[in-house]
Structure formats: C-alpha cells, structure tokens
Design goal:
The structure holds two protein chains of two kinds. By secondary structure, chain A is mainly alpha-helical. Chain A is built from twelve helices and no strands. In chain B, about 40% of the residues are buried. The chains are: A mainly alpha, B mainly alpha.
Chain lengths: ~270, ~290
C-alpha cells in the first residue's frame, strides 16, 4: 500500500491504552481474585490455590459419579452434541443450496437469517411456546433442541460462501470418472470445504457453550443448568469458586486465541 | 500409447446430474425439518399464543383475546420498561459510537501487524461468556466506582463494555476498504484534514456505522443480564427483565408472547428506518467483498 503508516501521537496512544484498560481490567481482576485467600471479591488477603481445589470438589459443577447431575459436564455434552448435529445439517444444506433454484435459495436464506438477526430473547420466547404447545417438559433435552436450532443457521452461512466458490468442474470430473454421488461428496467436495466446516463448528460450539437467555428460558424452570444458568442463579451470592471456574475458562479461550494469532500472524508477515 | 477419446454421452450426463441433485436434496431434508419445526412454526405459535388467555396448559384449544395487547397501554410496567429499554439502548449506541469510531479509524492508521494484534485484543472478549464478563465488570465497579451500581449510567457502561466490539468491527472493515487515492485526491484538491474527514471518510464509512449501530442497539435494548448484575435492586426496569419476570416467575407465556411480538414490531421499525439511512451504499468499490 502506498499510504504511509505514521506513528501515532501521544493522545492517540493514551486513548488506545484507556480502551484496552477498560476491556481487560475486569477480566484480569477476576483472574487475580481467584487466588485470594479471603472469601471477599474486593479485599486481598493472600495467595492461595484453595479455590481451585474447592472448585473440582464442588458436587454441583463436577459430579464424577453421576455426570447427568454435573453442570460442567452437561454444558460440554450439549455443546459437543449440538455442534456435531448442527455442523452436519448446515454443511449438507449448504452443499445442496448451490444446486437449487433461486426462489428456494432466497427463501432458505431468509428463514436461515431469522435466528441470527432476531434478538435472542424473542427466539427464546418462541421456542418456549413451541415446547409448551407440544407439551415437552423443560430439561436438558429442550436445551439441546434449542441449541441445534440456533447453531445450524450459523454453520450454513459460514459454509455456504465456500461451497459457492468451488469449481464445479472438479466435482463433475469425479462423476465422469465414475464416482458415486456419495463418494464424490466425501472424497471431493467435503475435503475442499474443510476449513469452512471447522470454522462453522467452532462458532456453533461457542454459541452453545456460552448461551444463556435461550437455555434459561427453555430449561431454566426444570433445574437443569448449564454453566451460564449456574452463574446467573448464583449472582446474588457470589461464590469464590466462580472466579476459579472463570479463570480456567479464560485460560482455555486465551490459549486458543493466542495459538490462532501466531498461526495467522505468520500469514500476515508473508503478506507484508 | 493409444489414447481413446470417450464420446460424451449427453443423455447419460443429464441423468447423472439429476441423480446427484436428488442425492443432495435428500441430504438437506434434515436441515429443512429442523428449520421448519424449530424456527418457522415457533414464530407462528408465538403469534397465536399472544391472542390466548394465560393459564392454559397448551396453545390448543384455540381461543381469541386481545387482552394482552390492550393491557400494555394501561400497564405502567410495560410502558416504563419499553421506554427505558429504548433510552438505554440509544445511549449505549451513542457512547459506543463515540469510542468505537475513533478507535476503528486509529486502527487503520497503524502497521498491518499492529492492526491485527489490536483487532484481536478488541475481539477476544467476545469469545468469553457474557455473564463472566459482566460479573467481572460488576466486581471492578463495586471496587472503584460503587456509585455507578444501580444507576442508568452504570447499565450503559456495562452494555458498552459488552457490545463495543460490534461497533468497532464493521466500521473498521469499511474504513480499511476506502481507496487511499480518494483521500489523497481530496488533499490534493485543497481540502483540509478536517474537511477530508467530514466530506470523504465519514460519508464513505456510513454503511459500517449503520451496521454497527444495529448490532449494538438491538442486543442492548433486549438485554437481561446487564441490568440484573449492575442494577440488582431492579430500579432500572428493562423489557428483558419484564419478559423474564412474566415467564420464569409468573409463567405467563401468552402475555410474554404478546410482549415479544410488540418488541419485534418496534425492532423491525427501527431496522427499516436505519437501513433507509444508508444512502451511500455501494460507493466503495471494494465494499461488496467486505460483506
């Protein structure tokens, strides 16, 4: 690029630093106070790892003998199952969508956008009405169905542009060489869109793992909780172990993001 | 070697294409079932439900009443929740814009590597559970700014904290796509820096600003979490809290459906109005790639 990239002036630097402080000070304080000896979330008393020991002993979060009663295990289970199902549904629909007529494609896209665009609370109420009408009692089952419902559209819009950009001649060549549609799908089409599928699955997993409003509405009254509902119902009696749990989640996400950063960082360097 | 050219059998080719298409249609059936049962039908049921009396075990048998809709105009709680939601969301959008626009603009001035790093740092919190972030902010507020707890400005700060990236990203995407020649030629033609900003950069980034506005305003207006954490005494009563209360604590599903529908109509109106403001759409040559 021809435009010269100038150094920023001190005011701009201060502005940048203030924004970063605003974004990261709360997150860092959570991590720091997870090592606090006192039960308080505001007064520092000394370093301890007890919160982490207590965390893994907590029967509600980690129930090793009965995983069905464990908040952490069930959150992960629902995230994994809904990710697998929504990734399969969304990917296959994206592949088929390139072959259909424009009318159907436009209609599908419109319906697909509804859960993405509309505020979560409206999706939550509509699903609650559905389960009420079908008389399906709220539980982890309704939570799973709801998660499939809002994750699938994200997989479709992530995978579809990639499928559309594929050269149709490659698939045609496979058919001409005698591949069955099934074989062409698994040996030719899917390998070409692998990256987009993984990106879609990552979005689906995060959406499910972090979801609060929809899960709370469709399953909250049953006592079946995911991590978000657990955090919410404990908001007025803040347990110190929540800081420890939060820190572990932060570390996992931070690790993943740093890893991605160094992977893409190399590409950027090559570009420059 | 003997090369034999296979004759292209048109009939067979067509048949093959047809079987492929059929196979793909079968593959997409589960998707359509899920979308119809879990997206389309619920919306219809919600509309039907909003015209029912509450205290029915299911949507069937179908009755008809306008009670819920008529109640709204008398119920102070609904009017209060709706107006305070819209006001708080409006304030949040303005504050996010005031912070987000200069931030996005500043980013485009930096080295590509620094841009990527800073963008990642701004984006990273979006991968973290929102409840964790709001709880973290609550902790900081109680420590350093306790006077903000239970106030409207406190709730606005919380919403800015959560939704700021939604404002920065679309604006950054549009500004970084502005052709540098346009800015240069504006300077060559004698425009001051200020004038270039007002007449070239801001109009060209309008589409990014408007999508940022929508992406901040809508979730801010319908939030449940932020006021519950940052205004726990519930003196800031937003529409999300009202729906949560009527569903979770009072079990009034039909009443909540009616609120959700009124809310959707208000939101559709706002979205329609904001989309209409986008008069420079497609001016940027590269804009289509960005979306």
């Amino acid at each position: 690029m021809l435009m010269k990239k100038k150094r920023i002036n001190p005011y701009q630097l201060i502005f940048l630093l203030l924004v970063m402080l605003f974004i990261y000070a709360p997150i860092i304080s959570i991590a720091v106070f997870s090592f606090n000896e006192a039960n308080s979330l505001t007064v520092w008393q000394g370093f301890t790892l007890n919160r982490y020991v207590e965390l893994f002993k907590d029967r509600e979060l980690f129930n090793y003998t009965n995983p069905r009663e464990s908040v952490v295990f069930m959150t992960l289970f629902i995230a994994v199952v809904s990710t697998i199902i929504s990734t399969i549904l969304g990917t296959f629909a994206a592949i088929a969508l390139t072959q259909t007529r424009k009318v159907i494609r436009d209609m599908t896209m419109t319906v697909n956008n509804i859960p993405i665009v509309s505020p979560e609370i409206i999706t939550a109420v509509s699903l609650l009405v559905l389960f009420g009408a079908l008389q399906i009692a709220p539980s982890y089952n309704t939570m799973l169905l709801a998660h499939i419902a809002f994750s699938t559209p994200y997989v479709l819009i992530t995978v579809y542009p990639k499928v559309k950009s594929l050269d149709p001649n490659i698939a045609d060549a496979a058919y001409d060489l005698g591949a069955s549609p099934m074989k062409a799908l698994f040996k030719v089409i899917l390998p070409q869109i692998k990256v987009a599928i993984i990106a879609g699955a990552a979005i689906a997993f995060t959406m499910s793992f972090d979801d609060f409003i929809i899960s709370y509405f469709v399953a909250g009254s049953s006592g079946d909780k995911n991590i978000s509902i657990y955090l919410y119902t404990n908001r007025l009696s803040p347990k110190p172990i929540i800081n420890a749990l939060s820190t572990i989640i932060l570390l996992i996400i931070g690790g993943k993001i740093t890893y991605d950063y160094f992977k893409t960082g190399k590409k950027v360097e090559e570009l420059e | 070697m003997n090369k034999t050219i296979l004759p292209i059998d048109n009939e067979q080719h067509k048949k093959q294409r047809k079987s492929v298409r059929q196979f793909e249609v079968y593959l997409s059936i589960p998707y359509y079932i899920v979308m119809i049962v879990l997206v389309v039908i619920p919306i219809f049921l919600m509309v039907i439900s909003s015209f029912q009396e509450d205290r029915q075990s299911s949507v069937f048998p179908i009755g008809f009443t306008l009670t819920h809709y008529l109640d709204f105009f008398q119920a102070a709680s609904f009017v209060r929740a709706m107006t305070s939601s819209l006001w708080i969301a409006f304030a949040t959008t303005i504050v996010s814009l005031i912070i987000g626009y200069p931030l996005a603009y500043l980013l485009t001035k930096l080295k590509l590597k620094t841009q990527m790093t800073l963008l990642l740092l701004i984006n990273a919190p979006m991968w973290i559970n929102m409840l964790l972030r709001v709880r973290a902010l609550e902790q900081i507020m109680r420590m350093f700014f306790p006077f903000l707890i239970d106030t409207a400005p406190g709730v606005v700060i919380g919403l800015v904290y959560v939704y700021l990236p939604f404002m920065v990203l679309p604006i950054y995407a549009v500004i970084s796509k502005i052709d540098p020649n346009l800015i240069e030629s504006s300077a060559d033609l004698g425009a001051s820096k200020m004038k270039t900003m007002m007449r070239v950069i801001i109009p060209l980034s309008l589409s990014g600003v408007l999508s940022g506005v929508l992406m901040v305003f809508l979730p801010a207006a319908t939030t449940i979490i932020v006021p519950q954490y940052l205004a726990p005494s519930q003196n800031i009563y937003m529409i999300g809290t009202l729906i949560e209360k009527s569903i979770i604590y009072n079990g009034r599903i039909s009443y909540s459906s009616a609120i959700a529908i009124v809310l959707s109509i208000v939101i559709l109106g706002i979205v329609y109005y904001i989309k209409k403001l986008d008069k420079y759409k497609g001016v940027n040559a590269n804009e289509k790639e960005a979306y």
